[in-house]
Design goal:
The structure is a homodimer. In chain A, 42% of the residues lie in helices and 14% in strands. Chain A is of the alpha/beta class. A 6-stranded parallel sheet of chain A has the order 2-1-3-4-5-11, sandwiched between helices. A 4-stranded parallel sheet of chain A has the order 7-6-8-9, sandwiched between helices. The longest helix of chain A has 17 residues. The structure holds a DNA duplex.
Chain lengths: 365, 365
DNA sequence: AGCGCTTACGAAAGCGCTTACGTAGACTAG
DNA sequence: CTAGTCTACGTAAGCGCTTTCGTAAGCGCT
């Protein structure tokens, strides 16, 4: 088993292979200008010696930096940790390093992190998480990233459309529509939305989908109570309290992500409101615990891990003239938290919930 | 607002401040040998220009690398993502970068990642997650880390004791004991353990705690059914199936982490076995969803985020002669998944569960 | 044979920083 | 007043790599 000595340098490999430093470098980088025979020998020696190039020297000397910077809201949010998992998988396959930093869903902090990553000369920047409804911030971020790309950096984002770079776009609008249609099909007419902070584009997009569905069914938006709180579990708790207080006729709550849905369920449980018999609840994202809640959560499945993989794969391709876009697709997963709307005089035996999937697929397929 | 130009170098800062390159370097690094007056001027200029040192050049030139490598099983496991969150917090405060890689709970992969990080010349290595009951692997890892430290690297681990480095040690044994005592107090006498893979030290330690508690109460281990499966939710599912099949008298299941507990609950629900009325279930870790499950999960709370913070803080201190150890402490959190053991002839109205905490504390305190 | 062209390789110049080492000038000591 | 000691700073030598440039050899062509 090759044990890399204290500091094994390329020159050692080169000498051992009987070639010059330059040739060894070229051989290992797969550049041409080296005969296949010599290249093979160099690789062989490097392998035997367990040589790993010093990335600092390599980058300093002008090679592309092999580290990818990933900006997320918080890694300990399941949505982002799954994305990060996907990114790390691909990075490992490609021999890249992943640096993770937090934006804390704060536009200014995000911009700072972006600048920091650029100053650190990472080769690839990935930004995950909603954009902001703030023209100044978005413009600055856009300019910063454009300049970074002009200097050879590669960028991809997940879930934002206004940055002029390759993007993986979750089906927010379509998912919102599917959620609303599902509830409408179940007969709900008094629907409330536990929405995240106004100003997040993800929130706006999902909400737009909900509105569209209502419109198409000829319902006015007056029937829709929208409550904006934090885009977190605690925000969901607060939102549910507000909905119960201000919109007592509500029979279904759409939480715009699973974290909020968990908060909503928690509040409903505290108020002893049976779900789904008296109140249906839906979430969005399908984080892995959604299937294990009680009741298990009807939600929109987004392929978070794949989104992470896709984002890095996009960034790895040579840059195209126009920004690429990849849609994620989505899937309505109906579980136990939704049921037909209660009739004004509640039926003694409520119908069982429509039920297509009670268990989450294995986490390690 | 300072916008770092294409490539702003230290020499520019030095010239602008009217000093030499060396002086500028010393001033920014806070070395002495520079008058406070000059140092202040240099810092001032650097600030104005938005100068950020090129970390590759800095590291190559012999300065300590400012990146910390974090090895976890999987970031998308809540246990590890919370730890990672803590590490990232401290890193941000200290201006460090965090590189995350996966070991996949595979000893060989972990060793590879370790070597890779060392080859990448990170300055600090943090390893989170159980150790392995494999003398060869542990010895190799130990040797690798010792050599890394000999060359000035800093290391801290979370949850492993055999590596001869600073360690943050979760209260696995004590937690296991507390769990078992809780169930014994509730009158359970036929207890089963859904244990993770044999060979993980975390599993062994927690199990040891359970055994100790049984012994102290004068119970033989024959009353304890231990089933080893994967240390994951799916492992918990399988374990529960086996327990139901092979140990039908069981009235309480100790899952050695929350992931397994979630799997256990899932299987019990599928079998329509009421929890906690007919079967009590406990977990370990208190991941943030534990409070939101149905029933909410009685478990041992470990301060994962703090563990991450502590680990990096330890590594940041100058190395001590003997490895430091920090215990995490633990807290038994009793929720709704545990209740008194059912009497052989089940009482018509089972007692309500002991109940001290039904809600998880806010995620962003 | 002589010319240009290509191919395979080596020599050497940096990349942007840190840090020995050298050297003024300002002291104290004898 | 000279020798020794600090202190504050500049000069220059790398850190380990990539890459430009130069060159010798091999090829086909006139």
């Amino acid at each position: 088993m090759p044990r890399p000595g204290p500091r094994l340098r390329l020159i050692e490999v080169a000498e051992r292979a009987g070639v010059s430093l330059a040739t060894a470098s070229r051989a290992l980088a797969g550049r041409d200008g080296v005969s296949e025979e010599v290249a093979a020998r160099v690789r062989q020696v490097a392998q035997e010696l367990g040589y790993v190039a010093n990335p600092y020297a390599r980058t300093l000397a002008g090679g592309a930096s092999s580290t990818v910077g990933l900006v997320v809201h918080q890694v300990d949010d399941p949505y982002f940790s799954e994305i990060a998992g996907g990114v790390i998988q691909v990075a490992a396959e490609e021999g890249l390093l992943v640096q993770i930093c937090h934006s804390g869903r704060d536009p200014d902090a995000e911009l700072r992190q972006l600048r920091h990553l650029i100053a650190q000369r990472v080769g690839i920047i990935l930004v995950a998480g909603s954009g902001y409804d703030d023209a100044r911030i978005e413009a600055e971020a856009r300019a910063e990233l454009a300049e970074f790309q002009r200097q050879g950096g590669r960028v991809a984002v997940i879930g934002r459309h206004a940055l002029g770079v390759d993007a993986v776009l979750p089906d927010n609008e379509a998912g919102g529509r599917a959620l609303a249609e599902h509830l409408l099909d179940l007969g709900h007419r008094h629907i409330a939305v536990a929405a995240g902070t106004a100003g997040l584009t993800t929130v706006a997009d999902r909400l737009a989908g909900v509105s569209t569905a209502l419109h198409q069914r000829g319902l006015s938006l007056d029937d829709l109570a929208v409550v904006h709180c934090d885009f977190t579990r605690d925000g969901g708790r607060v939102a549910a309290e507000l909905i119960l207080r201000d919109h007592p006729r509500t029979t279904a709550i759409i939480a715009l992500n699973d974290a909020m849905a968990i908060g909503v369920l928690s509040t409903l449980r505290a108020h002893r409101i049976p779900v789904p018999e008296r109140m249906s609840v839906v979430g969005f994202d399908d984080v892995s615990v959604a299937a294990d809640l009680a009741p298990s959560l009807t939600t929109i499945r987004l392929p978070m891990t794949d989104m992470g993989r896709m984002a890095l794969s996009l960034a790895l391709k040579p840059r195209s003239t126009r920004p690429r876009r990849r849609s994620t697709g989505h899937l309505l997963v109906v579980r136990d938290s939704t049921a037909p709307a209660p009739t004004p005089t509640p039926s003694p035996t409520p119908l069982p919930a429509t039920h297509t999937d009670n268990h989450h697929p294995a986490t390690t397929p």
